[in-house]
Amino acid sequence: METEDIVHTPEVCNRHVIAVRDALYVLNGKWKLPLIIALSDGPKRFNEIQRSLVDISPKILSKELKELELNEFVERKVFSTTPVTVTYELTPYSKTLDKVMDELRSWGELHRQKIVASRKSKLS
Amino acid sequence: METEDIVHTPEVCNRHVIAVRDALYVLNGKWKLPLIIALSDGPKRFNEIQRSLVDISPKILSKELKELELNEFVERKVFSTTPVTVTYELTPYSKTLDKVMDELRSWGELHRQKIVASRKSKLS
DNA sequence: CATACTACTATCCCAAAGGATACCAGTATC
DNA sequence: GATACTGGTATCCTTTGGGATAGTAGTATG
After folding, report:
1. What residues in chain B have per-residue pLDDT under 70?
2. Which of A19, A38, A41 sits opposite B108 (nearest CB)?
3. A37-59, pLDDT tens digit by residue?
4. A23 falls in which pLDDT band (50, 70, 90)?
5. Which residues does chain B have within 8 Å of residue A93's beta carbon, measured at their own beta carbons?
6. What does the alpha-carbon distance between residue A91 and residue A83 come to, in Å, rounded to a whole number?
7. Cβ-based contacts under 8 A for chains A and B
8. Residue A64 in 3-state DSSP?
9. How far apart are CA A48 and CA A33, in angstroms?
10. Is residue B28 within a helix (H) or strand (E), and if so which, with residue range?
11. What's the CA A77/C1' D8 distance, rounded, in angstroms?
12. Per residue in B92-124, is it b (16+ CB within 10 Å) or e — as a string?
């Protein structure tokens, strides 16, 4: 049942390439995932995010948040306090990324272990 | 059982960010995944790959193949025919990416559908 | 003897990503 | 009146990714 009866026509491969690229296009860049993870324990304000992700400049943070908003991973809420406060929080749609993130995370851990192990064996 | 008893300490989040970044670091760029998919139906020679991935220049192809080799996704084999031929093929380790790729692919398809749907609703 | 094939490398160039710094309006605080 | 807070923008700069083009050594083929 789990056997690989995959057909390797150029068309099928091409669809796969496109789908995977679509996914990576949305997730790539230096800050998208750190941002999503930073927001995963609740809404945060602009300056709060900037403080928790050390070394991100306001220009970059602004740009990344806009992109996350466009992709509907993040909702921006404005409160008319004085001064105005703005919060950013994850949308329900962002939860559809959970399995992708889990796989990326566990594979990333596996790969790091492998790298470390192969470094050691080369020091033999 | 599937409930989210995730602890959101900065340390845990940080480990997650690092692992996910490690994974994306290996997969990103314009050509890594097309290359892996291109090799998924068997070994290919350098010029064969270049012909099947239209528009990749030899410099880029060479660089990408070296990186894939470093990460042990691809094995390079030299045959002393005349002229020398070189083949590239996926390693068993590259199969550890299967689940990641599947998740990325299916999420990419989901996301594309969402984009298309939301475009339509905005044309209302 | 010229051309084509093998697998590349070298050089130069352009565009995009990312970052540093200064600045904006408005209000509150010292 | 100076400073600090809110959430950003504007400008300039550097780094990185990627691409175009030409060239390499050695052999074979016309």
Report:
1. 1-6, 124
2. A19
3. 999 999 999 999 999 998 899 99
4. very high
5. 114
6. 25
7. 113
8. helix
9. 17
10. none
11. 14
12. eebeebeebbebbbebbbbbeeeeeeeeeeeee
Yes or no, beta carbons of B26 and A103 under 8 Å apart: no
Residue with tokens 């998919």: B37
pTM recorded for the entire structure = 0.89
Length of chain A measured in residues: 124
Nearest to A22 among B13, B20, B111 (CB): B111
Q: Report d(CA A54, CA A51) in Å as an integer.
A: 6
Q: Which own/partner pairs from B48-56 qualify as long-range (CB within 8 Å, at least 24 positions apart)?
A: B49/B88, B56/B31
Asked if the Cβ of residue A81 lies within 7 A of any atom of strand C, the reply is no
Residue A63 and residue A61: Cα distance in Å, rounded? 5
Cβ contact A46 with chain D strand, < 7 A: yes
Dist. CA A15–CA A20, nearest whole Å? 9
The verdict on a CB contact (< 8 Å) between A100 and B107 is yes
- Measured CA B64 to C1' C13 distance, in angstroms: 20
Outline where B39-85 has alpha helix (H): 46-52, 58-70
Token code pair at residue A69:
């908003």
